[in-house]
Amino acid sequence: MNAGQAAAELTGVRAVEVRHLGNSVFEVDLEDGDLVVVKRHDDPNAVLAEAKSLEWLAEPEGPPVPGVRAHGENWLVMDQVERGAPSPEAAEEFGRRLAALHATGAPAFGAPPPDGPENASIGLAPMLNRPHASWADWFKADRIDFYLRKAVDQGELTPDQARVVEAVRVEAPDEPPARLHGDLWNGNVHWAADGRAWLIDPAAHGGHRESDLAMLHLFGCTHLDRIVAAYQEVTPLADGWRDRIPLHQLFPLLVHVALFGGSYVQQTLAAARALP
Predict the structure, then answer these.
(1) Is position 54 within any domain?
(2) Is the residue at 208 inside a domain?
(3) SS3 call for 227
(4) Residue 40 lies in a domain
(5) Cβ(132)–Cβ(108) under 8 Å?
(6) H or E element that contains 165
């Protein structure tokens, strides 16, 4: 089945044109004049996880997210959101809305979205979503050690390098579980033509809100200082949050080591060594 066939089958409207946007993402014109985005995942669990993530993040006070039209087996059909340009005003609104989204909370650390699978994914990597009472225990087990073992088993990290990461103390302020996007690098902040910043491609779960902000800092984000300042106006971050950025970044960095190795190894070790 191709993207046009999947769109037609899942929406009940014939596809008239398909454009490949990159990787496994397509833009499809439907016969009724509507335009949708169609995404393919090899793993049906990844389809379900993304669909349920988008539905869970669709909070009125939070950043906007594409609406889920339909999903099934290997295909997800979503509303198309026209791309625009970033602006300081959009960044500030995004920061306030991200704070509001986090504050809606989650049942537990590691909890998946309602009806979402335990075996989810982040990008091309598997990701476990298992509820846990303790943020530190969960983050170490399912967000650091899980990918650390993969990186060592695949030969991307030596045992000595792994010990540098294992020595890190996993500590953060005691806060209730936040509702996280879960993969909030700058590429998943979609600056739209409506003048707002939308969330796309989530790997949502319950976690510590500092993790989303740390991921925004990992590869940089347009108007990041304005985003953070506006966020803090709504819900101030605990003292020392900037010092904990490398701790939260160990999760996405280890994902990248497990997937790609290379320069991410030294970046991961630098993050681990930056922590007390």
Answers:
(1) no
(2) yes
(3) helix
(4) no
(5) yes
(6) helix 159-166
Residues in the chain: 276
Range of the domain at 95: 82-276
φ and ψ of 210, to 5 deg? -65, -25
Indicate which CATH number applies to the domain containing 131.
3.90.1200.10
Contacts of residue 12, Cβ cutoff 8 Å, sequence gap at least 6: none
Q: What is the enclosing helix (H) or strand (E) of 36? A: strand 35-40
Give the pLDDT of residue 22. Answer: 85
CB atoms within 10 A of CB 12: 10
- Which of 177, 180, 175 has its CA nearest to residue 59? 180
d(CA 12, CA 29): 13
The tens digit of pLDDT for each residue in 155-181 reads 999 999 999 999 999 999 999 999 999
Active-site positions read 183
Tokens representing residue 93 in the block: 């609104």
**What is the reported pLDDT for 128?**
96
3 state SS of 20: strand
For the chain, what is the domain count?
A: 1
**Residue 214 covered by a domain:** yes
Q: Which two tokens stand for residue 261?
A: 């190795």
Q: What is the C-alpha to C-alpha distance for residues 183 and 121, in angstroms, rounded to an integer?
A: 10
Phi, psi values for residue 192, rounded to 5°: -105, 165
